Amino acid sequence: MGWFRRPAAAAAPRVSVLHGGAKTAAGGAALLSARRVVTCAHVVNDALGRDLYTTAPPADDALHLAFHGPGAAQHRTARLAVWVPPQWGASAMVWQGDLAVLELDEPAPQWLSPVVWRDMAEGQRLRAWHGGGEAIAFADTEVKLHEDRFGYLDGQLSGAAIGPGFSGGPLWATEDATVVGLVVAHVMPGEGPMSPQATVRRSWAVPWQAIREELERAGAADTVAECAVRGRYGTAACADGSTAAGVAAELWSLLGDPARRAQHARTLAALFGYEPPPGESAPAVEELAQLLASEERALASLSESLAPTLQDGHARAGLDRLLALGRLTGTARLLSLDEHRLLLRELRPAVVADAALLPRAAREALRYIAPPRSLSGARLDPRDLDAAVTELEAYRDGGRPADGISPVPALLTLVEYAAAATAPPVRAALHAWSERVAARLGCHPAAVQLRRADATAWAAYRPSPVVRLVAEISGPPDRYACALWEVRQDGATASLVTADEPRSGAEIARLIREAAETARDDGGQGVTHVDIVVDRDGLHLPFDEWEAASSVEFLPRIPLGVKFRIALRCPEVSARAPRREAELRRRWESAHTGPLVVDENCASPEKVCALLETSHRDTAQVVLHGPPAPREALLQLCLALGVPVVLWDRAAQSHEHADRLDGIAPAGPLHQLPERIQHFRAEQYGASVPSPARPSLVWENTELPLPGGLELLDPAEGADIR
Length: 722
Description:
Blueprint: E1 14-18, E2 25-33, E3 36-39, H1 41-47, E4 63-68, E5 74-88, E6 95-104, E7 116-117, E8 125-129, E9 138-147, E10 150-154, E11 170-173, E12 179-186, E13 202-207, H2 208-217, H3 221-226, E14 228-229, H4 241-255, H5 258-272, H6 285-294, H7 298-306, H8 313-329, H9 337-353, H10 357-365, H11 385-393, H12 410-420, H13 424-441, H14 445-460, E15 466-474, E16 481-488, E17 493-497, H15 505-521, E18 529-533, E19 547-548, E20 558-559, H16 560-563, E21 565-569, H17 572-576, H18 580-590, E22 596-598, H19 605-613, E23 621-624, H20 628-640, E24 645-649, H21 673-684, E25 695-699
Parallel strand pairs: 7-14, 15-18, 18-21, 22-23, 23-24
Antiparallel strand pairs: 1-2, 1-4, 2-3, 3-6, 4-5, 5-6, 8-9, 8-11, 9-10, 10-13, 11-12, 12-13, 15-16, 16-17, 19-20, 24-25
Helix pairs in contact: 4-6, 4-8, 5-7, 9-13, 10-12, 12-13, 12-14, 19-20
């Protein structure tokens, strides 16, 4: 068993998925995080009164859950977040998939911790509970065969057996209270090729390995990242042999005395829930090294108890080397258990009060490195705070590229900036936390003070208000790369979102609306204009119809074109038409004629080209009518000839539909055209008989250059403009 031993799994906390409106359980579930549980899809089907093997995702119905532990059960409602339906394969007895992640409407009870996962392996002794949650309703079983995506379980012929109602519940390893998979089904006597004698107590499960793969394949990598995972104790290893030898050597140097090693080992055991043997014995150095490799916060926690006891610089240097080796293993987190809990406790109220605090601070504190995805938007959902902290722990130096002072980790730098923008009591608590962690890590106090001075200056600065947003959107239909900038009244620009991964139209619309709301909350007058930068294929996408959810729960979703004055820009054309930029400026400066309206009388490219180079050489606006294919060719022509404003109805199918744009008054004052289009969309949105027109507008404003000379490069190649 070793020196570090887990207590046996007793009556572990249990989660029930209940039939709608009833107290009976359809099955069990495992808590992934404070807001999410995972169960079987067929359990969700059963709870909602559907056929067990229905593959279509259920409607947005509330599911009822019960959490069993100390005292009376506590109830929550949840909604479907990830759906992996049952999928029949070659076998007629088992199926693949069958997973559902549920999002809780409010956090799980505080006394309930998320399960800790580890891989399933043959020979593991496991315990499962019936979904009803009664402590007495447990069944013991063992993994007899782990094959590909399935785990086959056999129970002894004594005690209770897995059966109906156990599905979706976690399989707890009795030796250490980790979870290795979910119960899926019990093989009933006489099913398929199995005789009643052979299937008395055979069940099958989905192992953690398959759960992880299925969720990642379903696009829920963020959910997997939230899961606590432990390698099987005794088999965890460092990155390579030399690193493992280095860890052991430094441990011998720091904790060679058995009494001293026992003292710190018992502190670790208490923190991580192990039961050391009685007496004054100490673990072997090799066993302690294995624990540090298998528990991601063990090394930081060990250094937290060890650092104050070091008497000289030589010992401190040894601890620094040990921490550096821990980073090389890829398994050690930056923060100890206590540091992590304290940071979340101090930061969460500040994030709840100001969801833009951390993203705003990150844009300045992490200006020399790409921010993590969780902080790339305008706001941070308080539920994602833990994920943001975890991401930042992997960042090493958050300071200036070369300032001659010991590096300060990015997380501590961000905390200093966040502290500078909070109320004095929170600021003092975060400063104390930062100083405590910096001292443990060996950061020079002057380095921390420099970050603090920079943060104070940043918090005192009041930039000019944000007046416009610029979004660069590209990619295949339905999933787009999006980078987002804010433009201030004095012309300064700042990157808000980098094009790090594909997003849906609704996700991009939410980012844009949240950025505008954040700018208004920071004291601006409100963003009214959004420029959307696209390639030629993106000119016909319905950006104005993308519905944007608000970060304020009471406000409804609303189309971008109703909320903002949307204008398209297409710098790609300039690369193909070298004279375009000069023509754009000339037409803006010379514009003193009305628009060129392209109707059936002048619908050929040759005619339009002739007009734009002669009688309409100074025209700044073209209104395009007609069917889609010829209209697209004319649009490309107008852009190549440097026409800065082009208006068309993307829903028009013929010249007979020209009058649909009359409500916009295309020939009215040019400078008011974006506002008239916005008002037209607002009047038609939700109308009982809305207009079929879908106006689109290119507006190339040469007085408002794109951030950094944006030219629709690959998102990974673009510079982070500050």
